[in-house]
Amino acid sequence: MRDAKLVENAPKWADEAVQKLSAKSVDVGRYDLVLHPSHLWLTIHESVAHPTELDRAMGYEANYAGTSFVAPPEKVLGTLKYGSELMNIRGDRTQAGSLSACGWDDEGVKPEDFDIIKKGTFVDYHTTREQALWLDWYYKKIGKPTRSHGCSYAQTWAAVQFQRMPNVSLLPGDKDLGWEDLIAATDRGIAIIGDGSFSIDQQRYNAQFGGQVFYEIKGGKIVGMLKDVAYQMKTPEFWASLDMVGGPKSYHLGGAFGDAKGQPVQVNAVSHGAPVTRFRNVNVINTGRTA
Amino acid sequence: MTLRSLAVSARYLSREECEAIAKHALSFATADETRVLVNSTNISNTRFAVNQISTGGDSFDAVVTVISKFGKRSGSASTNQLDDAGLRAAVDMSERVAKLSPEDPEAMPELGPQTYQQGVNWSDATASLDPTTRADAVKRITEPAKAANLVSTGFMEAITGAQSITNNKGLFAYNRSTASVLTTTVRTPDGTGSGWGGATHHDWSRIDPSALGARATNKARTSVHPVAIEPGRYTVVFEPTAVGNLVQFITRAFNARSADEGRSFFSLPGGKNKIGQKVVDERVTITSDPFDTDVASSPFSSDGLPTQRVVWIENGVVKNLDYDRYWAQKTGRAPTGSGGAIKMSGGTSSLDDLIHSTQRGLLVTRFWYLRPVDQRTILYTGLTRDGTYLIENGKITRPVKNLRFNDSPIFMLNNLEAMGVPERVSASEGGEPGQAIMVPPIKVRDFNFTSLSDAV
Predict the structure, then answer these.
(1) Pairwise CB contact (< 8 Å): A265 & B43
(2) Theoretical Cys-Cys bridge with B98: which of A190, A248, B18, B68, CB 3.0 to 4.6 Å?
(3) Dihedral, CA atoms, A57, A58, A62, A64, nearest 10 degrees?
(4) In Å, how far from its chain's centre is CA B233?
(5) Alpha-carbon gap, residue A38 to B427, rounded angstroms
(6) What is the predicted pLDDT for the residue at A4?
(7) Please, are residues A238 and A279 in contact by the beta-carbon 8 Å criterion?
(8) Interchain pair B47, A230: CB under 8 A
(9) The pTM is what?
């Protein structure tokens, strides 16, 4: 709560709300997007964390949450090109202050940190004890022990424990790049801060995301605020367009308390970390309509 | 655990038990006003995947919530420990919280004794469901799917419960209720086709598992290898579930205060609202009636206000918005007392009639991942799922890839071409019973699809 600096930030947020009233409505088209971690955490959640759940990939969630384009395991593990070389995604339940952190999961397993995507290639799913055995062939092939990653969770005493995502985060890059550096490197783009409307299909291909605050970038500078902005993406194309990632100093954890999955629906709390990032040539739509 | 724990009838607290618990809790109260809610619920479910039962559950809980008020300060506490110590602790906690709380300038006094109609949202057929009968119902979907070399998944849930409200002003309300739901998704083994069937009702005997399975199977078979079409504005025939998916968002915007304060589609400049204005096609009427067995709901709301039939939109014109007790008092109106269900008018056409009358358009089975984009126009985005088809010259000619839309149910109901016979639908994405919704299939023009999805 202290990190949120609510009192300190309140005047800034109030000013942004007023600016929105006179913001320019966005012109539709393709833009380079500079995304703040306060925005990207939700895109990671929907387009990376959910599709890499093993029960989804195996069809066990088909009636509600859906299946996954990251399937079947034997055709994608170690081979599916998910994004650019800058895309390194880790699962963990250990980050300080993260919502998924725990000492042991609901099966008594001590969770481990694990790679999900390495240099843009998909390498592992989230697993429970039952599920890890389904990938025994793969772990033997890559010389890893067959063990659960510690992702079992039930929301209450009355619910069945099953696989729920750990914290799933995009790792920062080696260079000490920050928000201003990415803005300065962008000729024509939109910078997005905060999460807004979000929707993604049942196999996690097609998504649409809004945000809280949008700034137009021209010639490496922010030239004004925009409104009515949402971007539509196809997951592998979007992540393939990642061409700049910020350094460790720009890393920030976002998260949700009410991530839903399963039937009956259960919610869990989870965090997603990310540095500042830039994605090239993304399709932006205008959401403004009049009643 | 013994087998007996699974074989007993659905559990809920009787009127006498609720009254006794509430009186006991009130006997410990020292606040100016105290309200005691007793909510007992038995939830049982059977889940299936890959043509077999995957998990099942059966839970019972009885929760007592105490709301204490000292002047305009209020607090609450809940417990499921129903003995002396538990109830006393809940009352003490509630009163401590109330004393610590700031005054609420919008606090309303507790209601006195009220007269309630008898609730009609109870079904013995639902209350008598047990693990065996649930498994039998699931089998009526999984066996045919397996025999047809298809893959079925799904979820069935039955809820049996009782709710009571008691306060120290003489109010007592009690209602017992049931709910049931069954949904299934049937897919082809190669993942190129997917179909869905689902239904919900407080009365389980109104749900036919075999019919739902057959519908999902047919859609799975006929939706394989969908083709891409250009996104854009299309004439669309929406099956009733798809209509329910969208129309429910209009009813969620009925809050009068949001309208009067300028935060809703139903707002007008100057702190006014759209009551009396035509907002959709004149063939559209939307009502809520807690005592209509098609869409039955509780005879009272959580503050003890009796619920009643409400006409929200009549012949396209807004007739009522939803006023809670505070906002009603402030604006000089009566509180609404809505039960929350939806029933929309329809026509006499069948779904097939709507398809046959379409020169070129799309047929949508249902929607998924619906999220608001702009509350002021009730603009939503989401995607079609589990059966989207091209209609040409009055016939379904081929399956098409799923599409994302950005549009409003208000615009949709202004572009209405035809309506069919209303039916009860399961419009909750999560497969829970959800809001009771009865809507027709409809045909509309110019529905706005903005992109394609490769998801099946």
Answers:
(1) no
(2) B68
(3) -70
(4) 29
(5) 32
(6) 83
(7) yes
(8) no
(9) 0.95
Looking at residue B339, what is its pLDDT?
84
pLDDT tens digits for range B330-365: 999 999 998 889 999 999 999 999 999 999 999 999
CB atoms within 10 A of CB B14: 13
Residues of chain A with pLDDT under 70: 291
Least Cα separation, residue B185 to chain A (angstroms): 5
Show the tokens assigned to B83. Answer: 């003995």
Q: What is the pLDDT of residue B5?
A: 42
Give the residue from B190, B268, B456 with the most A CB atoms within 10 Å of its CB, the best one to mutate: B456
Q: What pLDDT is attached to residue B8?
A: 54
Inter-chain residue contact B379 with A260, CB threshold 8 Å: no
The pLDDT of residue B2 is: 35
Q: Which of residues 359-388 of B touch A (CB under 8 A)?
A: 368-374, 376-377, 379, 381-383, 385
Nearest to B44 by CA among B189, B204, B274, B187: B204
Exposed e or buried b per residue across B262-276, where buried means at least 16 C-beta atoms within 10 angstroms of its C-beta: eebbbbeeeeebbee
A232 contacts in chain B (CB < 8 Å)? 404, 450-451
Regions of chain B short of the pLDDT cut 70? 1-10
> CA nearest A214: which of A232, A193, A233?
A193
pLDDT at B6: 41
Q: Would you call A205 and B376 a contact, using CB atoms and an 8 Å cutoff?
A: no
Cα Dmax for chain A = 60
Asked if A291 has any chain B CB less than 8 Å from its own CB, the reply is yes
Q: Secondary structure of B122-145 in the HEC alphabet?
A: CCHHHHCCCHHHHHHHHHHHHHHH
- The CA distances from residue B247 to B157, B280, B286, B344, B455, in Å, are 24, 12, 10, 9, 24
In tens, the pLDDT along A63-90 reads 999 999 999 999 999 999 999 999 999 9
Beta carbons of A263 and B155 less than 8 Å apart: yes
Q: Is A287–B382 a contact, with Cβ atoms under 8 angstroms apart?
A: no
Cβ contact A63–B184 (<8 Å) = yes
| A200 → chain B, closest CA residue | B369
Q: Does B430 touch chain A (CB under 8 A)?
A: yes
Mean pLDDT for chain A overall: 96
Structural contact between residues B122 and B202, judged by C-beta atoms closer than 8 angstroms: yes
| Chain B residue with minimum CA distance to A261 | B430
Nearest residue on chain B to A198, alpha-carbon basis? B371
